[in-house]
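Archive maintenance. Older records in this collection stored only the sequence; we are now back-filling the structure field for every entry so that each record is complete. The fields below show one back-filled record exactly as it appears after the update. Entries are processed alphabetically, and Platelet-derived growth factor receptor-like protein is next in the queue.

ARCHIVE ENTRY
Title: Platelet-derived growth factor receptor-like protein
Organism field: Carassius auratus
Length field: 371
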Amino acid sequence: MKLWLFFTLALLWLELQNGVCQQVKRKKEDGENRIRPGRKRVKVRYPKVKEKEAGSKSQSILTQVLDKGRFLRLGESLSLSPGKTMELRCKGTNIGWAYPSYLDTFNDNRLSIKQHERYSQLILSSPSAADTGEYSCWVVLCDGQECTKDGESTSATYIYFTDKEELFVPSAIYFEIIYLHPDKPATVPCRVSNPKINVSLHREVPAKEIAVDGTQISYNPMKGFIILNPSPEHKGAYYCKANSTTKTTSQISTKYQLLYVEVPSGPPFATIEASSNIVSGGDIFNVTCTVLGEPEMNVSFSWRYPGKGQRPVSIHDSWRLINRGVGHTTRISQSVMIVDDVETIDYGKYICTTKNKHGVTLVATTVKSHK
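Back-filled structure field:
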């Protein structure tokens, strides 16, 4: 009996040992974390997104220096009192500036610009209503001797100098001509020194106030009255009237003469004509080159002719405005060549080259000998 019990216990012990030996540890898969994760939170880090990629607008690099070392970052517009010196700063090691053009025209010594190590400084002393306008700055990028304007690092602010006596921004021109083109808006530039001033547009003959509906005609204190779709009915003499918030007397602007333009934009429309195409020795003749174009479009002339460099000639250039049709205004530009005491060398082809900002046009005529 004891032997049987001993034998049974021995078999049981062998089975248990065999089961333990057959247990094999599971091999961890590649990349499996060998440290059991705990309950501590892990901060997720997202990739940084650049400001330009995020679509946000970059901050202005243009600031105004205030009292006690304070700075004001400038936006679209700013109103300042006249008389007090204005100081602007633009961040960057190489900065370009733009400001009302008349400050350059009259070489105004009230304006000074100085480049420092990390910023550029613009100072305007004793400002007045005439200094109202856009002030802008930008970073200048240079590669050797070639420099360009960095369009992405540009700031601009329209600054009003709110003079109670000068409601309109003064102009050196008492009577200004405005050309109306059928294919683009026209502006009557009666700008004001305070954006809160009430301004109206008036025609002289027949005398009446022009309705401003925001569709055909709109008003912008930074620009003036804008005629969106000019037509012949808009031609005539105009002026603007401003009403002060502190005075009962209105103020009148510069007078404006609006002329409707007939000729579309493009290279010069030129013609050439000789006073006579058949001449004899000893005669005198002239060749006239004529261009019809936009009133404000300058035209340059140059000539090629048989006796160039060997024969003296007289050349006279001129231009004037003319009316063509009903209410249409055109500029006629002419160059006249005069050949005196004709010789054999003067016979041949006369070529006139005309040029404007849109292109070049050549016209020619031939002068022959009278047999």
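Update note: The domain at 175-260 is CATH 2.60.40.10 (Immunoglobulin-like). Residues 20-57 have pLDDT under 50 and may be disordered.
Entry marked complete.
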